[in-house]
């Protein structure tokens, strides 16, 4: 089944690229000189490869002009911007492509940055929630990055697994990073679902404790039943068809960033980031990078079998997804990362 999904995706992407090529190389070349608007939803570490590519000037190195914007309000805001065509490319979570297919919107992931969730559920030391007794979550104020985000889905998945109504808790958008940790510390929320660096900040500052941890492969399988791909570069299919060269350049820049993360220490990785990207002090942030290192891909490729996990999770509580025949092969393509890989591989003598 997974091989068929993968094959179908490659065929679809190849046909799309061939179609756009017939329109005239001159038009594509002219369009490729235009800046690409890239928006990112938060400073969570799942998006680190994008921050590295931006900070190290990799987009310039591959010959692509970009205009970046950080909404700092969660991935759902970035998704809205993409659908409204106020941005060209989003740094968001893969599960949004599934949601959009259910709404008949053709949104496609073309670089996978984070192969796993990276999410944790944390609470204060004096908290009363015990995952061994799921009903103890009732009445709790649960902080998430934003409504409609993957942290939101995490909570809804837990509730669905235990037949607990969503209205038995209060879901509160608190953003990510230090702001999210402050909400827990100040008692504005009882529980927090978030990513690193928030997860590491909570433990290092002794604000609370990690109750459920899906950062590791084992933890993700316990929470979701499988790996849960998260951060991707995604765009409307129309953009990928109109500007395939730009998409390939983005893939090349992100592969450079992923190699940088794999080849360098956490301290060296943090050293290249501007202060705006760093939550808390750099030493603590470096610990967060090390804790999150396992979630990153090595080259941006999607593994089709892993994409079944977010689809299964969304079907538990998203009626649109549950009632739609989702074709996963249309939610992603490996075409551009494969072209980028081929371009960076030295020719054999």
Topology:
Layout: H1 2-21, H2 25-32, E1 36-40, H3 48-55, H4 58-61, E2 66-70, H5 75-83, E3 89-93, H6 95-102, E4 107-112, E5 120-123, E6 141-144, H7 150-161, E7 170-173, H8 177-185, E8 191-194, H9 198-204, E9 209-213, H10 217-224, E10 231-236, H11 237-242, H12 244-263, H13 266-271, H14 282-292, H15 308-317, H16 319-322, H17 335-344
Parallel strand pairs: 1-2, 1-3, 6-7, 6-8
Antiparallel strand pairs: 3-10, 4-10, 5-8, 5-9
Helix pairs in contact: 3-12, 7-15, 8-9, 9-14, 12-17
Give a description of the structure.
- The longest helix is centred in the N-terminal third of the chain and has 20 residues, at 2-21.
- This protein has two domains: 2-117 and 228-344, Periplasmic binding protein-like II (D-Maltodextrin-Binding Protein, domain 2, 3-Layer(aba) Sandwich); 120-214, Periplasmic binding protein-like II (D-Maltodextrin-Binding Protein, domain 2, 3-Layer(aba) Sandwich), CATH 3.40.190.10.
- Helix 9 (198-204) packs across helix 14 (282-292).
- The strands form two sheets. It has a five-stranded mixed beta sheet, sandwiched between helices. Strands 7-6-8-5-9 form a five-stranded mixed beta sheet, with helices on both faces.
- The protein has helices spanning 2-21, 25-32, 48-55, 58-61, 75-83, 95-102, 150-161, 177-185, 198-204, 217-224, 237-242, 244-263, 266-271, 282-292, 308-317, 319-322, 335-344, and strands at residues 36-40, 66-70, 89-93, 107-112, 120-123, 141-144, 170-173, 191-194, 209-213, 231-236.
- It is built from 17 helices and ten strands.
- It is 46% helix and 14% strand.
- The model is unreliable at 1-28 (pLDDT under 50).
- It is an alpha/beta fold and 349 residues long.
- This is ABC transporter substrate-binding protein.
- Belongs to the bacterial solute-binding protein SsuA/TauA family.
């Amino acid at each position: 089944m997974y091989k068929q999904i993968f094959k179908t995706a490659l065929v679809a992407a190849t046909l799309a690229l061939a179609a756009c090529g017939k329109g005239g190389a001159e038009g594509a070349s002219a369009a490729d000189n235009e800046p690409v608007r890239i928006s990112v939803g938060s400073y969570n570490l799942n998006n680190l490869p994008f921050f590295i590519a931006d900070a190290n000037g990799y987009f310039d190195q591959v010959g692509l002009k970009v205009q970046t914007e950080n909404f700092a309000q969660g991935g759902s805001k970035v998704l809205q911007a993409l659908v409204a065509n106020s941005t060209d490319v989003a740094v968001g979570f893969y599960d949004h492509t599934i949601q959009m297919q259910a709404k008949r919107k053709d949104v496609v992931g073309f670089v996978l940055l984070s192969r796993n969730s990276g999410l944790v559920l944390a609470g204060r030391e004096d908290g009363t929630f015990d995952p061994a007794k799921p009903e103890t979550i009732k009445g709790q104020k649960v902080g998430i990055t934003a409504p409609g985000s993957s942290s939101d889905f995490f909570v809804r998945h837990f509730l669905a697994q235990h037949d607990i109504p969503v209205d038995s808790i209060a879901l509160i958008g608190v953003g990510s990073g230090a702001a999210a940790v402050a909400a827990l510390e100040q008692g504005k929320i009882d529980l927090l679902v978030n990513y690193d660096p928030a997860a590491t900040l909570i433990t290092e500052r002794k604000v609370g404790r990690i109750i459920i941890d899906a950062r590791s492969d084992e933890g993700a399988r316990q929470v979701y039943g499988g790996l849960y791909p998260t951060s991707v570069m995604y765009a409307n299919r129309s953009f990928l068809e109109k500007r395939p060269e730009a998409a390939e350049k983005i893939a090349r820049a992100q592969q450079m960033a992923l190699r940088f993360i794999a080849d360098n220490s956490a301290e060296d990785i943090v050293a290249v980031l501007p202060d705006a990207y760093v939550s808390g002090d750099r030493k603590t942030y470096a610990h967060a990078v090390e804790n999150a290192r396992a979630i990153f891909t090595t080259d941006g490729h999607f593994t089709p079998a892993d994409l079944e996990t977010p689809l299964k999770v969304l079907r538990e509580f998203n009626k649109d997804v549950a009632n739609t025949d989702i074709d996963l092969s249309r939610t992603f393509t490996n075409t551009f990362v494969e072209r980028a890989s081929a371009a960076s591989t030295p020719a054999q003598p």
